[in-house]
Amino acid sequence: MQRSLVTKVASDQGAKFDKKSKRMENRKEIFKDVRKGYFYDFHEFRKLGGKRFFAFSKPSELKDSRLFPAMKARTLSQNEVDLQQEFAGHVTLVLLWIKAYGEAMCDKYRLPFVKHFHGEPLAQYYEISALDGFFFKAFKGIIEKNLRKERPADRHDNYLFFSGNLKPIKKKFMENEIVGHAYLVDCNGLIRWKAHANPTEEEITHMLDCSQLLLKDARRTLDSEDKVAFHSR
User: What's a Pfam family in this record (predicted)?
Assistant: First the structure.
């Protein structure tokens, strides 16, 4: 009886120790990511404006293109949006940022895109303000409410507020956490062009030219689908 009691106590203590060790490891991992990610990005931002490369002049080949990550978010008009479902039949400029600096940068991509493709039904854009960090997520309701007040009403339907898991997105799709990111996504949900930080005039030209090429592909796809639907009647 005494032996089994001692064994149980030892087992409980061992379990507590394991939990504590796991918490400590998780905490160390978080601090490591913060130090490595943020401070490196901040140094790069101060030195180079956060720009690691210049955008290409042509869309990437299909075989070299990644799917835009699955992302569900709520617009400022309080509608739930599944981005992957929104891409079908469109060419979409997706603008993504974490820091306020990034939003100002993303505006420099959004404004010429909206001006150039005004009235084009197959061209659309989405802005994504991504919330990162436990502190900010604790106040996500207040932050979202303030964004709704501060942003013009005509942007609310296309302005997404994302508070989900950002870690895989940061790791695979973001060059620098401080700057804004722009992605041209085709009608299949593939990222065909991307840029980040403040754009050069040349990059804006590339973005518009690539959008035109992707729109041609989108129209061709829609036409072929219509023909198939017509002949299957």
Answer: ATP-synt_10
> Residue 147 contacts by C-beta under 8 Å, 6 or more apart in sequence?
76, 129, 159, 161
Q: At what angle do helices 100-116 and 201-231 cross, to 10 degrees?
A: 60
Query: 195: exposed, middle or buried (C-beta count within 10 Å: 0-12, 13-18, 19+)?
Result: buried
Residue 82's contacts (CB-CB under 8 Å, 6 or more residues apart) are 70, 71, 72
Task: List pLDDT tens digits, range 114-142.
Answer: 999 999 999 999 999 999 877 677 788 99
Q: How many angstroms separate the CA atoms of 93 and 185, rounded?
A: 6
Cβ–Cβ under 8 Å, residues 181 and 174: yes
Q: Name residue 209's amino acid.
A: D
What are the two backbone dihedrals, phi and then psi, of residue 119, each rounded to the nearest 5 degrees? 90, -5
Distances (CA, A) of 156 to 103, 124, 151: 15, 14, 7
pLDDT tens digits for 185-210? Answer: 999 999 999 999 999 999 999 999 99
Whether 68 and 172 have beta carbons less than 8 Å apart is answered as no
Q: Could you give the dihedral angle defined by the CA atoms of residues 89, 198, 165 and 169, in that order, rounded to the nearest 10 degrees?
A: 70
Q: Looking at the DSSP assignment, which residues form a beta bridge with residue 194? A: 183
- With a threshold of 0.70, does the pTM exceed it? yes
Helix (H, G, I), strand (E, B) or coil at 123: strand
Give the number of C-alpha atoms closer than 13 A to the C-alpha of residue 158, restricted to the C-beta side: 16
Rounded-to-integer distance, Cα 36 and Cα 179, Å = 16
